[in-house]
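Exercise 7. Predict the structure of Acyltransferase from Trinickia dinghuensis.
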Amino acid sequence: MQRGRISGLDQARSIAIIAVVAVHLSFQFPHLPQWATVLARMGQYGVQLFFVISAVTIFMTLDADRERYRAASHVTARFYIKRFFRIAPLYYVAIVAYGAMSWYTYNFDADHASILGPHDISDVVLNLLFVHAVSASAINNVVPGGWSIGVEMLFYSIAPVIFFFATSRARLVVLTIVLLLACAAFLATGACGGAALECNVRNNSFFYFWPPVQVPCFLVGIWCWALFRPYLTGQARLGRAGIGITLGTIALCGVATAVFGVWMGRANEYAPLVAACGSAALVLVCCSEANQRLMGRIAVAIGRESYAIYLWHFIFAFEALYLFKHSHMLATHGPLLSLAVFVVVLAVTLAASYMLSRLTDILIQRFASRFARGLLERVDTTFAFRQTASARVE
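Solution. The predicted structure, encoded as tokens:
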């Protein structure tokens, strides 16, 4: 752990963002070898890895704040301030940036289709309020990939309630059962026409993106924190047997996810939960085996910028689409050359997205963080004054 961060979690984030960028670029490379296509398309489940890491990080932060502050309302207020100013400023800029790109391509570049799906001002408002995960037109059409941010923010809204309720393993079991039953009920009635066992959710459709399918992934992250906290924080390390079990779990869940999802499409609605289970095992391995060698430091740097990279990499993915569409440079190339170009474009996209993320960190995120720290100081002062006044009365 360094400067309040767990390097293993940042390394896991780097895997997640590389996987997500890979899947979004893979559609520009139709001549990849079959195995490479399947592997790249599996990258979409990097989002579920993000969800698991998010749940772990949130509960770690809430645990730390609960040790420092007495009132649950104080801890909750701090949580919402930190989460909002971590997510909202860059997302609002992304709404403007992608809206401008879409408007330009739609109006002035007749040979280049609009980069976003149909939406109107009400969809933009839903994104500004972070409730777009419940709207089919708003969930992924205002900011590309914005569906995952909507799902995350929905989870953030209930995370403190979950945290303060699940004060024991027994309570966490009850909460898990209740949430899973609720998600199953929504899935059955909303996406499956009342017959969950006969459900056939299409991959990357609204019913794949929507919260009842994705929220169970956060439960996996919560259980990961509850069961394996010493391993996640570096207080303990997995032995050989533990490493073997976790690697086996990753492989088994990976195959099952591919069968349910992008490879065979047997049950896309269950693929995210299975992917989350494999993601939890991957997080354990990363935290147990985190290193500070060159590749480890690079992975940590990428992981720290993963949110901004996620938002901005679509710009370069769209540029790659435009380039390859007009140059026809991959039309006659064989699988191996196509794979080589794909790897180069992936590296360039990651590098460009990282540099843009650093720039937006300087121009936007640092000011947002400074403002958030000021609000947190005011909140801390207010609650300290209340506690002092209460003590005097007593």
